[in-house]
């Protein structure tokens, strides 16, 4: 029997746990079952208590204290410990039916799923190639304020593309916290970031500062403090990254405002399509029609 789930990922501060809470609330309002898994060993505050919490197995604080590690090293140790104790996940998830949506809340250290094979190994255990046969998709959140700094936006988009390649899962990429930019960026401008391409750099307002410094001192060393702070020395690199993303043409974004129920529902519909949730649901029997004796009615 198949199971269904979504892995919520993204950089620190992207709003992953807030999105998980909004998703759970939306599912409950629509009378759908869900199972909330927290895999962030440092997380403490939740709007909805996790049904399964990695801190029941190991916490970041304990790993740092006992192993003498820093935050990043401690996080990697926690996930290596989880991989050595996968029964912790298997025993909790295996009994779930196909009516549940399994929501897995990940930590914000993106190196876990961009260039360290820890999370890809975990994903293989969860999906059809592993023990649990879960139809998974990834929801990668990127904070919408990144669009104000286009070089930063392309760096975030590159991390999303890296996660897509590493995890080999259906992906839903999301610009979160749209309420933070709706008053400063027009809808027309935001639409340009939905399908990123290198034309966004052609009219980047931050380029004007670099151009001004360059015109003031054409012989300036590109590695000097002024050039670096103005971003002039990174212009070619930014364009190369943007061109790489454009060439792959893998990343497009959905817009999310967790305060808007319709916005959360729209993201959920894309997740359902990616994991083919509705196709696996049994058709429900309609309510039995009330029997009516027409002969008795005529006699009356």
From TrEMBL:
GO molecular function: GTP binding; GTPase activity
Keyword Hydrolase in record: yes
Keywords in alphabetical order: GTP-binding, Hydrolase, Nucleotide-binding
The UniProt record lists the keyword Cell cycle: no
Stretches the record annotates as Disordered: 279-300
Top-level taxonomic group: Eukaryota
Subunit structure, as described in the record: Binds to RNA polymerase II (RNAPII).
Function: Small GTPase required for proper nuclear import of RNA polymerase II and III (RNAPII and RNAPIII). May act at an RNAP assembly step prior to nuclear import.
Family assignment from sequence similarity: Belongs to the GPN-loop GTPase family.
Protein name according to UniProt: GPN-loop GTPase 3
Species this protein is from: Letharia lupina
């Amino acid at each position: 029997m198949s199971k269904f789930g979504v892995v919520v990922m993204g950089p620190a501060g992207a709003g992953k746990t807030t999105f998980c809470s909004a998703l759970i609330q939306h599912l409950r309002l629509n009378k759908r079952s869900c199972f909330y898994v927290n895999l962030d060993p440092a997380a403490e505050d939740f709007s909805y208590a996790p049904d399964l919490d990695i801190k029941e197995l190991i916490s970041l604080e304990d790993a740092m204290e006992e192993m003498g590690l820093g935050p990043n090293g401690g996080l990697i140790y926690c996930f290596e410990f989880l991989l050595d104790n996968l029964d912790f996940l298997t025993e909790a998830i295996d009994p779930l039916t196909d009516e549940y949506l399994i929501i897995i809340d990940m930590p914000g250290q993106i190196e876990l799923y961009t260039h360290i094979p820890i999370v890809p190994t975990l994903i293989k255990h969860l999906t059809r190639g592993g023990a649990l046969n879960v139809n998974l998709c990834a929801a990668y959140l990127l904070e919408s304020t990144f669009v104000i700094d286009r070089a930063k936006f392309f760096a975030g988009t590159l991390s999303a593309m890296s996660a897509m390649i590493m995890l080999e899962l259906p992906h839903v990429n999301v610009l979160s916290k749209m309420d933070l930019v709706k008053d400063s960026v027009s809808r027309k401008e935001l639409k340009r970031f939905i399908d990123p391409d290198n034309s966004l750099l052609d009219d980047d307002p931050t380029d004007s500062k670099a151009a001004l410094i360059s015109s003031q001192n054409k012989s300036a060393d590109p590695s000097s403090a002024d050039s670096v702070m103005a971003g002039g020395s990174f212009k070619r690199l930014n364009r190369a990254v943007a061109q790489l993303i454009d060439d792959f043409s893998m990343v497009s974004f959905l817009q999310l405002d967790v305060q808007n129920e319709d916005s959360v529902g729209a993201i959920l519909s894309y997740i359902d399509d990616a994991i083919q949730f509705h196709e696996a649901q049994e058709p429900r029997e309609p309510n039995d029609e009330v029997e009516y004796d027409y002969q008795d009615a005529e006699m009356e």
